[in-house]
Design goal:
The complex is a heterotrimer of chains A (440), B (545) and C (424).
Chain A: H1 42-46, H2 50-71, H3 74-81, H4 87-109, H5 113-120, H6 130-154, H7 162-179, H8 184-213, H9 217-236, H10 273-291, H11 293-303, H12 305-310, H13 315-338, H14 353-363, H15 368-392, H16 397-410, H17 413-420
Helix pairs in contact in A: 2-4, 2-16, 3-4, 4-15, 6-10, 6-13, 6-14, 6-15, 7-8, 7-9, 7-13, 7-14, 8-9, 8-13, 10-11, 10-13, 10-15, 11-13, 14-15, 14-16, 15-16
Chain B: E1 3-12, E2 15-25, E3 30-34, H1 41-48, E4 56-61, E5 64-66, H2 71-76, E6 79-82, H3 94-99, E7 105-106, E8 126-127, H4 129-143, H5 158-171, E9 176-180, H6 188-203, E10 207-212, H7 215-221, E11 224-229, E12 232-237, H8 243-251, E13 269-279, E14 285-295, E15 299-303, H9 310-317, E16 323-329, E17 332-333, H10 339-345, E18 347-350, H11 354-358, H12 365-369, E19 380-381, E20 384-385, H13 387-400, H14 417-429, E21 435-439, H15 447-462, E22 466-471, H16 474-480, E23 483-488, E24 491-496, H17 502-509
Parallel strand pairs in B: 3-10, 3-11, 6-9, 9-10, 15-22, 15-23, 18-21, 21-22
Antiparallel strand pairs in B: 1-2, 1-4, 4-5, 7-8, 11-12, 13-14, 13-16, 16-17, 19-20, 23-24
Helix pairs in contact in B: 14-15
Chain C: H1 13-36, E1 43-47, E2 60-63, H2 64-84, H3 89-112, E3 120-121, H4 122-148, H5 156-174, H6 177-201, H7 206-229, H8 233-236, E4 245-246, H9 256-260, E5 262-263, H10 265-283, H11 285-295, H12 297-302, H13 307-334, H14 345-355, H15 360-382, H16 389-404
Parallel strand pairs in C: 1-3
Antiparallel strand pairs in C: 1-2, 4-5
Helix pairs in contact in C: 1-2, 1-3, 2-3, 4-10, 4-13, 4-14, 4-15, 5-6, 5-7, 5-13, 5-14, 6-7, 6-13, 10-11, 14-15, 14-16, 15-16
Chain lengths: 440, 545, 424
């Protein structure tokens, strides 16, 4: 009832210039664009109908992927050339192309009916789980970098630098892996801790600079990525540093087997202890964010740094701590690769884990459980992609496009709604929320 | 130009912001639109200016219907508006701001050669800065609005910025000028200046609409007053109407302009501030050598027009701004303590900007209620939060403070302003505090919420807290304060009793007067209860602008 | 009434003077004690013309150590001047430029003093700097166009990549490099359009959007490269390039001529665009309105400027400029498209834009600096100078961090940058 008096926006304090819009209240109005509510990125992803939106986004992305597959398949294109007198051929060629690709994708990542049938005839049961195992293996580093990005997001910051932090962890883990001699389990644990610390240090530097100077972490982390790329190459190119003996390429020595993480039922790329580390990290992150006082601080700073300050929370300390943890998680991601597969560290081992972490975090709605699921989805696409490329010749890059489109659509719920004419759910509506721009 | 609004209706969802409003303003008339915050005045003017499209109704200028769909249409129809929050680009000069959208341009030839117009592409064209400057100066002189065309707007004081806004409207030959709460940021002296300008503009045949919620001003300047309440016109009165009648029209019931409270029983000094100074971002001093004491069981009201250092003072007291000088709470030296330590030491803080600094809009009501005590038992043990305890305490608090919300888990940002403030108040006053610092606590609130907050503040005082309240609303100061400190340009220029005449108080707020007033003597031993009688301290004659 | 997102800091204006002075003196000392003292004995030879060029300038022979000492003394002198005298802004910039120049020359003198491999190819160095900075400048201009109107563009990298791909493909298929250029530009504009639509209409967070668009661009170009370009390289990736154009008269000026006036069309397009954007943004009505939209869109709206239309237009135009930059990477240089050919230039362009305080001229200076450090690294390794390439390659990134951290003054983006504009 006192809402009546709040028809006009509670006038922002009589500051000389604001960029508030004029006249419209904070609550939604039917149809059309929404005025902005909060500044938190999370709002985009945690308001109503998220499951429906995600599923629809996946559907649309797969459709786009299908178009890409078909439009670049010479067989299909030739069939369409003769569409006018053999339309059936064109359509069936199209269908075959897509079906072959996507079924290979599925079989490579989830399961293949052939193996099930084979098992009944005396084949190995373990082979049934091979695709899932691949999926989990691919998902492992993504989940961890996804957590890294998610933790930073919750504290209101963009961690574009997961790749650089990954490298930090990788360098430490690798060095500990070959330069130090320890008994079997202890060695692995020391390397894991070392990787966490390595990533955390890089994160710490970024956090400190941001805390002391207010610089925007997007530029800082991007720059640090490049510094770390170069550092990695540098370290691996000098015999006196970390280059493998008798090598001229930028490659590190192999790490001792005592430092490797064990695998389940077979050599990599089978799933291993790394996956368990990822799940444990997700659980720990969830607890940290939702049930600890530290997480409360993170979320407060992420939602409103000024309110946090007025409540006595040290915003700068939160920034540093959040980046330390984010860096550590990225370092853990490195450990699952460095200690999880036999190939030595090279100048581009970091691959796309850093940026993929961003897309995984976004798809996972910046929540640990979501990150795990999103990581598994992307892991499935990656695992399936390799098989698809081998089986049908469709380059695995199409899965990257599919992943990116899923995230793009998930980040723009109004678009999906428009495409599918969904009704807006209650609860403030899924706003796509703005970033704070460069000014933090 | 004659302005008529006929049947203007605007709905936002189920809320009717403007309900079939009719308004006629004659040329050469100053019409005041009087109403509380949220009554619909700004919405109506935004309709007139094309920022909002009405659901029903029409606009007529000189008895011709006009279609105003965008501000550009309004400008073309010679309607000008000076908004409550200035529409000035801080990093542009005055001339650039004034001519934005109507910039004089020249061709590529140098001015000496003449007007050779080459390359006349649409909306390109080189800026003719000299002509812009000239145009600004001409208007400035014609209407007595002193501005420097080349000054950067962000460097200008608020009163001058407002002049720039007015010149902006005049450049476009506005015949109807709307001023939305223009005096909110002006000193009484600057307000007089503005009124003079308004009369001048009226003499030229312009119609002026003056939006305000301040009775006295409206009575002083308007030719006619239209009172709006809850989206409807509830009456038109001449300025000679009594304040009580106007107030009750505004609010719909007879308003008590004073909170009933018992006399204060001040005890020992609890909050002792000495020689506090704050440096602003560019080296200027926003708070200059401020000293005062607040005793347990008393309310010290800091009166002053916004922008005279009150905000910085509160922030400095809470450790949110670096400052020199000393702050003692009940004997403990907090001068270098962090914000957290000050809160823990027993200061409650209700910040000026509740939505930015007081609450986290996306957090639940429950989480907001523990914003500064989240890591203390029973809400947490070690680093682990105790969610059940948080919820339980929140439910009790919400009941006690009559916060209207469906559940303690709803996001605080969805509550109305009044309820939001109640959450902040519940948090700060719901714990044991020795001192309470409250800044602009009832800004933007409806009358019911204002009453509530005031009652709570008095209750805290009666429970023994030392209360410092900063407000630019004189009514609030008069209602609550047991003693008043007047702040002007960063200094406390006087300490006066709440029996002081409003004119005198206004004069002090504007920097005038300053001689015969109760000055607060500095007391270097905080817990001393003897009223000292040394020489008066900081009240000096401030420089005239 | 301020939202306390950042703490209030005491002003640093006074100490910055001493910081600058100290830096100058420090660099001067390095000139003397590192480059001077540690130089091999002998002359540093600066070759000022390309071999076989006419007129052929004689190379400059200078005793390396001596030059370094001299330059060091100059730097120290300027440092003292900076500390003692309160210079006007142009003075501060000039002294900074001179000190940096002294530092570089000392470095070069040290590198080439008595060097057996050969003289320092100054022209090569400068030419290489200029061409290396073309995609950076164009990328920075692209970013500027959007950001000055209030839209953050992290997708410059994706625009460069897409532009490069389409330019190579179109040039290959049609046989016309000009068509390739246009195609690349349009492709960049298309990515810009996507950015604009998602950011302005669908209010997606602009930084996220940029990152995602980059990923899409990379995935898409890689996919089509693997799927189409590699198997059908003759049709789609034949590697045509523009030939260089020597501007008559101007290209014969010693030193400046071969560097600035003897390159392919892309350099000249870049000159033109720098001029157009600089004048456009700061001296025309168009530019004033764009900047108003980027600083205070509500104010711009209330005077009748079409905010959203301005943003759309600028972002798409910016994308087209970036597309040209991308086209340079293929039809303007190596010709063939390869996977991830933009290899991070888009992000460096972003850094250049920020370093250059969101102005075209500033971005150019930053881009040249970055390009120069890259070229220097190559040149020094040719001369077999024992300087780790790592340090030189890192220099631009570290410099950007220093700039962004505010150690060289506040970097202030347009006030409404990144915030979508919504009106009821």
């Amino acid at each position: 009832m006192s809402d009546q008096h709040e028809a006009e926006p509670a006038a922002a304090p009589y500051s000389a210039t604001t960029t508030e819009d004029t006249g419209a209240p904070a609550s939604g109005e039917p149809g059309g664009r929404q005025p902005l509510t909060g500044r938190l990125i999370i709002q985009t992803f945690s308001e109503g109908n998220t499951v429906v939106i995600t599923i629809l986004a996946i559907f649309v992305a797969l459709l786009v992927g299908a178009i890409l597959i078909v439009a670049s398949d010479p067989v299909v294109l030739r069939a369409w050339d003769s569409f006018s007198y053999a339309p059936g051929t064109a359509l069936s060629a199209t269908w075959d192309s897509v079906a072959a690709a996507y079924s290979a994708l599925f079989e490579g990542s989830i399961f293949s009916p052939a193996t099930v049938a084979a098992a009944f005839h005396g084949g190995s049961i373990a082979a049934i789980f091979y695709p899932l195992s691949l999926t989990a293996f691919e998902a492992t580093p993504l989940i961890l970098t996804g957590l890294s990005v998610a933790v930073a997001f919750r504290a209101g910051m963009f961690n574009i630098g997961a790749a650089g932090q990954w490298i930090g962890g990788a360098l430490v883990a690798t060095w500990l892996g070959y330069a130090v001699n320890l008994p079997i389990v202890l060695h692995a644990i020391v390397c894991i801790i070392g990787a966490f610390i390595g990533g955390a240090i890089i994160g710490w530097i970024v956090g400190e600079i941001k805390a002391r100077t207010g610089a925007h972490e997007v530029i800082l982390t991007i720059m640090f990525n490049y510094i770390m790329y170069n550092l990695l190459t540098f370290m691996l190119s000098s015999q006196s540093l970390m280059q493998a003996p008798h090598q001229t390429n930028a490659v590190a020595p192999n790490i001792a087997s005592s430092a490797m993480l064990p695998h389940v039922g077979g050599p990599p790329p089978q799933v291993g202890v790394g996956f368990l580390i990822a799940l444990a990290a997700a659980a720990a992150t969830s607890w940290l964010l939702n049930r600890s006082t530290i997480g409360f601080q993170f979320r407060t700073v992420g939602a409103s740094p000024s309110a946090a300050r007025s409540a006595g929370i040290s915003v700068e300390r939160v920034w540093v701590l959040a980046f330390v943890i984010a860096g550590g998680l990225a370092g853990l991601s490195a450990t699952t690769i460095v200690q999880g597969q036999t190939a030595p560290l090279t100048f581009n081992s970091y691959g796309t884990y850093g940026f993929d972490g961003i897309t995984v975090a976004l798809l996972g709605r910046v929540r640990p459980l979501g990150v795990v699921l999103a990581g598994l989805l992307f892991g499935a696409l990656n695992a399936g992609g390799t098989v698809m490329e081998a089986a049908t010749g469709v380059p695995a890059d199409v899965t990257n496009v599919i992943e990116a489109i899923i995230v793009l659509l998930v980040a723009a719920p109004p678009l999906i709604r428009m495409l599918f004419r969904l009704r807006r759910s209650r609860g403030a509506g899924a706003q796509a929320v703005t970033s704070k721009g460069w000014s933090g | 130009m004659k302005l008529e609004l006929r049947g203007i209706t605007k709905r936002f969802g189920s809320l009717v912001a403007n309900d079939h409003i009719d308004l006629v303003v004659q040329p050469g008339e100053i019409r005041a639109l009087l109403g509380e915050n949220g009554a619909g005045k700004t919405t109506l003017m935004n309709v007139l200016y094309g920022l909002i499209q009405p659901d029903e109704g029409e606009i007529l200028l000189d008895d011709q219907q006009v279609n105003i769909h965008t501000p550009a249409d309004a400008i073309r129809a010679k309607v000008g508006m000076v908004h409550q929050h200035f529409m000035l680009v801080p990093v542009f000069t005055v001339a650039e701001n004034v001519t934005l959208g109507a910039e004089p341009v020249r061709g590529l030839a140098t001015p000496a050669i003449g007007r050779v117009r080459s390359f006349r592409l649409p909306s390109l064209g080189l800026l003719d800065r000299r002509r812009a400057r000239r145009e600004v100066r001409e208007l400035s002189e014609r209407f007595g609005l002193r501005v420097d065309p080349d000054a950067m707007v962000e460097d200008l004081p608020v009163g001058v910025q407002q002049r720039v806004e007015i010149i902006k409207a005049l450049l476009r030959d506005a015949r109807v000028l709307v001023l939305d709460e223009p005096t909110a940021v002006l000193t009484p002296g600057e307000t007089e200046d503005l009124f003079r300008i308004m009369r001048e503009l009226r003499a030229g045949g312009r119609s002026i609409i003056f939006i305000s919620h301040k009775l006295k001003e409206v009575q002083a300047i308007a030719d006619n007053i239209t009172v709006i309440r809850r989206g409807q016109v509830v009456g038109e009165r001449p300025p000679s109407t009594s304040s009580t009648e106007l107030a009750s029209l505004m609010v719909g019931r007879s308003v008590q302009l004073r909170v009933s409270k018992e006399a204060a029983q001040p005890a020992e000094v609890v909050l002792d501030v000495q020689h506090l100074s704050v440096h602003g971002e560019r080296g200027e001093q926003s708070v200059r050598d401020v000293s005062f004491q607040v005793r347990a069981g008393e309310i010290l009201g800091v009166a002053g027009v916004q922008g005279n250092g009150q905000t910085e003072l509160c922030e400095a007291l809470m450790g949110l701004r670096p400052a020199t000088g000393s702050v003692h709470l009940d004997g403990t030296n907090l001068s270098h303590a962090s914000t957290r330590d000050r809160l823990r030491a027993g200061i409650g803080y209700v910040p000026e900007d509740r939505s930015e600094d007081g609450l986290v809009g996306d957090f639940s009501v429950a989480d907001n209620l523990i914003l500064d005590v989240y890591d203390q038992p029973p809400y947490a043990s070690g680093i682990s939060l105790n969610l059940a305890a948080i919820r339980k305490s929140a439910t009790a608090r919400v009941q006690e403070y009559d916060v209207r919300t469906t559940s303690v888990l709803t996001p605080a940002g969805t509550l109305s302003g009044g309820n939001q403030q109640k959450v902040v108040v519940a948090r700060e006053m719901g714990r044991d505090v020795k001192a309470l610092i409250v800044s602009q606590p009832t800004r933007g609130l409806d009358v019911g919420s204002i009453e509530f907050v005031h009652k709570r503040v008095v209750a805290q005082r009666d429970a023994g807290a030392a209360v410092l309240i900063v407000s630019s609303e004189l009514d609030e100061i008069y209602a609550l304060a047991d003693r008043i400190a007047v702040m002007y340009e960063g200094q406390i220029v006087a300490f006066v009793p709440p029996t002081i005449e409003e004119q005198e108080l206004g004069l002090l707020m504007a920097g005038g007067g300053g001689a015969a007033t109760d000055a607060e003597p500095p007391d270097t031993e905080p817990p001393d209860t003897e009223p000292p009688d040394d020489a008066p301290a900081a009240a000096q004659e401030p420089e005239q602008p | 009434m301020t939202a306390l997102a950042t703490p209030v800091r005491a002003p640093v204006t006074i100490s910055r003077r001493y910081l600058a002075a100290g830096t100058f003196i420090g660099l001067g000392l390095i000139d003397i004690f590192v480059f001077g003292l540690l130089a091999h004995s002998g002359d540093a030879v600066f070759a000022l013309s390309l071999p076989g060029a006419s007129p052929h300038l004689p190379s400059i022979h200078v005793p390396g150590a001596l030059l370094a000492y001299l330059l060091g003394v100059i730097s120290i002198g300027l440092g003292v001047l900076r500390a003692v005298v309160d210079l006007p802004r142009w003075g501060k910039r000039l002294t900074l430029a001179i000190v940096l120049l002294c530092f570089l020359l000392s470095l070069l003198a040290w590198a080439d003093a008595g060097n057996v491999v050969g003289p320092l190819q100054v022209i090569d160095l400068l030419q290489g700097t200029l061409t290396a900075s073309i995609p950076l400048v164009l990328g920075a201009l692209a970013g500027l166009m959007g950001e000055r109107a209030g839209v953050i563009n992290i997708a410059i990298e994706g625009q460069l990549l897409t532009g490069a791909f389409v330019a190579a493909a179109v040039a290959s298929v049609t046989g016309g490099v000009w068509l390739g250029l246009i195609g690349g530009s349009l492709a960049g504009g298309l990515v810009g359009a996507l950015l604009a639509i998602f950011a302005i209409m669908f209010l997606v967070d602009q930084i996220i959007l940029g990152v995602v668009l980059n990923v899409v661009a990379l995935g898409l170009t890689n996919y089509l490269y693997d799927r189409v370009m590699i198997p059908y390289a003759n049709t789609f990736n034949s590697g045509n390039t523009f030939s260089t154009i020597k501007i008559p008269v101007l290209s014969s000026i010693p030193i400046i001529g071969p560097v600035f006036f003897d390159a392919n069309i892309f350099l000249y397009i870049t000159y033109a665009l720098i001029l157009v954007v600089q004048i456009g943004l700061f001296r025309t009505r168009w530019g004033l309105r764009v900047r108003a939209v980027g600083e205070h869109p509500v104010a711009a709206d209330t005077v009748g400027i079409r905010v959203l239309w301005t943003r759309y237009r600028n972002v798409i135009l910016g994308g087209m400029i970036a597309g040209i930059g991308g086209a340079y990477l293929t039809v303007g240089s190596v010709g063939f498209f390869t996977s991830d050919i933009s290899s991070g230039f888009g992000f460096i362009a972003l850094a250049a834009m920020i370093f250059g305080r969101w102005t075209p001229l500033g971005s150019v200076a930053a881009a040249l600096l970055f390009g120069f450090s890259y070229q220097l690294q190559t040149e020094l390794s040719v001369l077999r100078v024992p300087v780790s390439s790592f340090i030189l390659l890192m220099a631009p990134y570290v410099a950007t961090i220093i700039a962004v951290a505010g150690l060289v003054g506040r970097v202030r983006p347009p006030a409404a940058d990144g915030k979508p504009y919504v009106r009821a």
